[in-house]
Design a protein that fits this description.
This protein has 164 residues and is of the alpha/beta class. A 5-stranded mixed beta sheet has the order 2-1-3-4-5, covered by helices on one side. The longest helix is centred in the middle third of the chain and has 13 residues. It is globular and about 50 Å long. The termini are far apart.
Length: 164
């Protein structure tokens, strides 16, 4: 018995009815989404998109990190992206905890000191979102023709509100 047998079994069913072959990997709808790793977020379906339509980059909090910018630059220049949505969400642990709280909780779970581990918490989600939008729009390799928006996804209603 392997640790992943249930998932591999599900994958076999998925592959038996596979219909996504033949794509070339570009974002067919021209969309890139940067959002949180939160399991309540379904990035494609929340925007009426399907596999093949969008580039998706996820991390805790849906932040514009150096790696997110790498993805965006590749998306814009090589993968057909011309609209970018940055989408943090309500009730996000990264935006509702302090750095010390997360370190304490992880320390308790791990049974070892986690005080050295950064989690990059956000104390003002909309301000952080505005800063993240600016990181993208001011990037020298993101042309002004690319439209960038900052949004908050409500995990209780499914709605997305544009904030920036
Ligand atoms: Zn989150």
């Amino acid at each position: 018995m392997g640790d992943f047998d249930d998932l591999l079994s599900a994958n076999a069913d998925y592959a038996a009815d596979f219909k996504l072959q033949g794509f070339d990997g570009v974002a067919r709808a021209g969309v890139a989404i940067v959002t949180c790793m939160d399991s309540r977020i379904d990035p494609l379906r929340m925007l009426g998109l399907e596999p093949g339509d969008a580039k998706i980059f996820r991390n805790p909090g849906g932040r514009i990190t150096p790696q997110a910018l790498e993805a965006i630059v590749l998306g814009v220049h090589l993968l057909n992206v011309d609209r970018i949505l940055i989408v943090p969400h309500t009730r996000c642990a990264v935006a509702t905890s302090t750095e010390d709280e997360l370190r304490r909780r992880v320390s308790e779970s791990a049974g070892v000191d986690a005080s050295w581990q950064p989690f990059h918490v956000v104390d003002d989600q909309v301000r952080a979102l505005a800063e993240d939008v600016a990181k993208v729009t001011s990037h020298p390799l993101v042309p002004a023709t690319v439209r960038v928006g900052g949004f908050v996804y409500d995990v209780d209603t499914g709605r997305i509100d544009q904030k920036v």
